[in-house]
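#lab-general

N.A. 3:47 PM
ok so I finally got the sequence cleaned up, no stray characters, all 219 residues accounted for. can someone with queue access submit it? mine expired

B.Y. 3:52 PM
send it over

N.A. 3:53 PM
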Amino acid sequence: MTHMLTLENVFYRYKNSGTDVLKAINATFAQGKTHAIVGSSGSGKTTLLSIIAGLDSPSSGAVSINDEDLSKMDLDQYRRERVSIIFQAFQLFPMLTALENVSAPMHLNGINPTETTRKAIQLLQSVGIDEPKQKRYPSNLSGGEQQRVAIARALSSGAKIILADEPTGNLDKSNSDSIMQILKNLASENNYCVIIVTHDIEIANAADVTFRMSDGELK
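B.Y. 4:20 PM
back already:
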């Protein structure tokens, strides 16, 4: 199995701080698997996700994707094409319909408008958003439906690494289970590398690989 993402001896320290937020992180995240990083608030898990996403850079150590060092890559392009993020608060554009939200990343990547619409409809259908709901604005969708739209939007870029930051944090158990199953299917059936940050032990236990984070250390 291809190893997509590797962290080697990663440390992170806030500027003007003498304390390491991340300490000697070594981990490999593989294609075709769901990975959970579980830990309490303040353990460093969201900081780690930011570094994997290229939103922050490690103070020392290296992050690489298929042996390419992130520090030598165009990080804007990396975030457009190779990694997508799903947020706890959905982060959908409120003035765009579900269909338009999913189409937006493809427009930015220069995909033909006709192809963009076709693919957006297909992606929304794949996560259970039917045609009437595709025309609704986020405020007219339930929390579970908004998160499904957010997943479809993450998939629209074509990125094979999906980062999910507390994706079930605002959902009830039924919707949480459903969203987790979608993410697991993306890994097992479509060969995505899925990395989920969560404080929910039940969600973490449903992943293929579980890392535990405490005081900046990953185990």
